[in-house]
Amino acid sequence: MTNMKEQFTIGQVAQKTGLTIDTLRYYESIGLLPGVERTNGQRRFNVSHIQRIQFIQRAQNMDFSLKEIGQLLMFRESPEASRTEVREMASEKLKEIQARLEVLLTLQQELTELVDECRNSTSGPCPIIQSLDQPQ
Known about the structure:
By secondary structure, the protein is mainly α. The chain has helices at 10-17, 21-29, 47-61, 66-76, 83-120, 127-133; strands spanning 7-8, 37-39, 42-46.
């Protein structure tokens, strides 16, 4: 098990998390990573910071914005008391993703048809280019 008092430099945290040093500094500057101590001017992260960063990354993978992640991090402090708010946020995010999926499925169908038309046409302008040339 990892020592909870173990400290890491910003470079070590960047390597562990796959984030850039600039991203870690940015997260700290906007309050997503509070309480980063400094020793001789160098940031010293602990295990709880890394866990928090991993939470942020998982939330980003679920398409939450940094602002929304800030709210989720606040809710993280009292998960039982904030269950309704978190569920509502996640439900709203799900609706947004479902709407984008519908758009992507329509796009997929359109591109599939255009590729097939292009494959089956032997002369004249490319149907894909023609489609892109059409005003919306």
